[in-house]
Amino acid sequence: MADGTKAVVDTSAADAAADEAALAAAIDRLAGGKTAPAGAADAPSPDSPAGTDREAGDTASDDAPDDSDDGPDSPAAPAGEETSEITAPLSVREIAAELAAGTPRSKPAPAEPAAARRRPTDPQPTVDPRDTATLPRTLPAPLRHSGDMIGHRYRLEECISQTETFSSWRAVDEKLRRAVGVHLMASGHQRARKVLAAAKSAALLGDPRFVQVLDAVQEGELVYVVREWLPHASDLAKLLADGPMEPHEAYQMVRQVTDAVAAAHRRGQAHLRLTPRCVLRTDSGQYRINGIAVDAALRGLPADDDTDDAQRADTRAIGALLFAALTHRWPYPEDRYDLQGLPKGLQNVAPDQVRAGVHKGLSELAARALFDHPPHHAAPITTPEELARAISLMPRIRQPEPELPAYPAPPRHNTHSLPTAPNPSRVADPAVAPLPPSSRPTAARRTRRRLRRVVKATAWTVALGAIGLASWQFVDAMRNNNGAVASPLPTASSAAPTAQKATHAPTPIPVKEAISYNPRGDSPESTYLLPKAFDGDPTTAWSTKQYFDPFGPKPPLKDGTGLLIDLGSQQSVSSVSVQFVGTTTAELRIPGAQAAANPTGAQPEAFTVLDKQSGTTADFTLGNPANTRYLLIWLTSLPKDTEGKWRGQIAEVKVFG
């Protein structure tokens, strides 16, 4: 002013109005011209998650092409893993989270009156405000093409999804010749360091129920995260495409997912973005969880410092998964994952009120986990540990027994009363009333009486014949020995011990544990499937990883992989029976002097080869029993699976003494 004083102007209202206009215009551009209705990102109601709660179903699975919440500009989903989230539309809060990275923050707009707020949409947190301000808020995803090499080891094959921040690829580990998944991000992005930290913490979790993070590296201008690839897994969204789950399937899903998430929380880990795209069912029926901590970091979602908020977010997400599995509906107004959202008037209702025939116990469980105020004044479940205890207290829901086909009873043949031709001269007298059915002997009754008489007569004849034959043999023996009582002839009871020695059946030796033995690789193979190698069920199997090349010197991959059988103590082993899936070549080995102290850490050369066989079954019979605790089934040649890749599978191992 003229007197030198500074005029203070309150621009908070103008800034808020400008921000709202910019957000509406950006939403209109990203959504294809459809502006979100006012209040779409308002604060949640008491029964919905607050700003610290994560969306219960809008994330991509790191185990599949679902690594992005891509908008209309995303590429079409190519053939690959059956877990793509590209078709899932962005929610208003997700769009706001993406725009927040490039929009300067201004003073918060005044809160709207409670009466003006409407029920929130599917919740989603915004970008973490604690990012380092010196790094750029937005940085394009690194541009890469099929065939490019990452880290001199991973060859990119197929781009699964791409956002403005990162891209996800299916790649090949050239060192181990196996498929992997790779996320790429610019190292100068604000999220890069948090993505690396989240990936390394997830790798340290070491729980086979989660998709494993194999590598996380910053190399020049690039940050890449490598994770396990499960080509035979289907995500929950894919499983729900044809309708809701049966009660026993939904029970297995929520039990396995809850146990895994609860175990992760006990070790200080949270998922924070658990959705149908993150829950994968393998071909063996096991459920595995993808993207723990990494999914949230890739999308800039803040890691909750408050443990209670993180546990509530994951518990609510599990409740949403169970709700969708029981009702085939998404428990929010938006349509997600090919599931229709609930009408606004049906919010905060239990699954059995949405669809008839829903299991009562599972319905109550989903409502208590999903809502802060469940119906019928039930107590809410706020942590995965509480949810796991509630599931354990439920009666176990088992799969119904398959109905056996009804076969008609075979016709009875009666040779004593053959049918005769009808006599046309005999005409029934209508004046004579027929006998009641109870007083007329039927042909079946007569046949049964005849059969009983024949059986009795035959039994008496056989008994008398046996007595006569025994008497004749006794008299003949006395006559041939001049009246002396001869030594009794060998009977069946006296000859039994000799026959038993000749046909002695081997004694089964129980297997205590199976251990993945992979000294030529960088990690164990399919540890969660190890019990299936000796569970007594030949329809289940332990499996190696998939390999693009067979074992052998050309190409120089490795000479084998195997399974180490632990019998628990020293046993005298005479034979080992192994059942494979497909024609497999394997050797039976026992630890030598060098491997006796630490068989799991010894090299294959430290084991002694006892036998080698090839086929779908291998019966290793030892000439001299071996006294050992450990047995190594060393696979040297693997069959091809249905995808044309090499993979070994052991369905059953039996050890005999």
Task: Characterise this structure.
Residues 1-16, 30-91, 101-134, 420-433 and 483-503 have low confidence and may be disordered. The chain is α+β, with helices and mostly antiparallel strands. The protein is globular. A 6-stranded antiparallel β-sheet has the order 1-2-3-4-6-5, with helices on one face. Strands 12, 13, 14, 15, 16 and 17 form a 6-stranded antiparallel β-sheet that branches. A 3-stranded antiparallel β-sheet has the order 7-8-9. The N and C termini lie far apart (102 Å). The longest helix is centred in the last third of the chain and has 38 residues, at 443-480. Helices cover 25% and strands 20% of the residues. It contains 11 helices and 17 strands. β3 (166-173) and β4 form a beta hairpin.
Helix/strand/pairing category: alpha+beta
SSE pattern, N- to C-terminal: HHEEEEHEEEHHEEHHEEHHHHEEEEEE
> Strand count, sense and closure of the main sheet?
6 strands, antiparallel
Helical stretch count?
11
- Helix fraction? 10-25%
Task: State which percent range the strand residues make up.
Answer: 15-25%
* Poorly predicted regions: 1-16, 30-91, 101-134, 420-433, 483-503
Which word captures the global form? globular
Radius of gyration: 36 Å
Average pLDDT metric: 74
- Distance between the terminal alpha carbons, to the nearest Å? 102 Å
